[in-house]
Amino acid sequence: MTGPLEKVSTSKAFAGELNKYKFKSAALGGLDAHFNLFLPYLKSGQKAPLLVYLAGLTCTEDNGAQKGGFFGAASAQGIAILFPDTSPRGAGVPGEEDDWDFGTGAGFYINATKPEYSKHYNMYDHITVELPKVLEAEKLPIDLTRQSIFGHSMGGHGALVLYLSSKSKQYRSASAFAPITNPSKCPWGEKAFKGYLAGGLQEGADRYDATELIAKSSDPLHILIDYGTGDKFYQQGQLLPENFLKAARAAGYDEVQIRVRSQPEYDHSYYFISTFAADHVHFHANFLKA
Ligand SMILES: N[C@@H](CCC(=O)N[C@@H](CSC=O)C(=O)NCC(=O)O)C(=O)O
């Protein structure tokens, strides 16, 4: 059972505050889960729409909050931002601490189906089901009927996949910085899908690959992607944005519904993310405040 929420810290930022919380997570097999929540100051009785930020490999709930540069635009727009962690912590699965791109810090936003991982590695349910319930139970001034999602790298993959696969159309829009867009065709994704999923690469391609999902989609969509041409992981073939764009155009999506921008010389870092941070918050504001 999900445990009570405990506030760990609070810091004023722009016209709002960033609160860090922890609780015992049922989705993550009873382990402690941490998250950060940025809440803009609101008028009495007002509720903020929610933008969920998913971070990349090796990150925690702190990377995006500390280095993303999202709070100025979010407070001006009256948007709350939720920063979950990137994996369970302390599951005790042999080998989970051995690699930086698998196990701890690399949950890939999927529900694991291999027996050794399936008790704890359920980041998909943690983000889409458990965290909204926790926010609702706490009676925070957030309007959960208005949610959008964005992320970076592994978190960009998570944002696209959660947006495209969520049955209840939970999110109004998705955006991503340097996302892994075709994980069943790149080394990071292949390692994750083979490692976490009983059905291996095929299960990953069917359920958690944005390029495969967009190819089958006919719903109206609102997606923005930025990647840098100086990004070493793009150059190494980990991100494959061209595959996603090709599949999107073949499925009939135009530039207005799905925009993929190649940004000259930017790398994979938070310097790149913070450069386009306000752009992404404003993109989501169009749908969250509609
Ligand atoms: N340790 C790795 C580099 C890890 C890295 O660059 N992680 C990125 C996300 S990569 C895709 O998901 C990141 O966000 N790092 C945290 C940060 O604050 O920059 C290596 O040795 O190359």
From TrEMBL:
Instruction: Tell me which GO cellular component terms the UniProt record holds.
Output: cytosol
- Stated EC number for the protein is 3.1.2.12
Q: Which UniProt keywords apply?
A: Cytoplasm, Hydrolase, Serine esterase
The GO biological-process annotations, alphabetized, read as:
formaldehyde catabolic process
Q: Per the record, what are the reactions this protein catalyses?
A: S-formylglutathione + H2O = formate + glutathione + H(+)
**Residue positions of the active site:** 153 (charge relay system), 231 (charge relay system), 268 (charge relay system)
* Molecular function via GO: carboxylic ester hydrolase activity; S-formylglutathione hydrolase activity
Q: According to the UniProt record, what class of enzyme is this?
A: hydrolase
Main role?
Serine hydrolase involved in the detoxification of formaldehyde.
In the record, the note on similarity to other proteins reads:
Belongs to the esterase D family.
Q: What is this protein called?
A: S-formylglutathione hydrolase
**The species this protein was found in:** Coprinopsis marcescibilis (Agaric fungus)
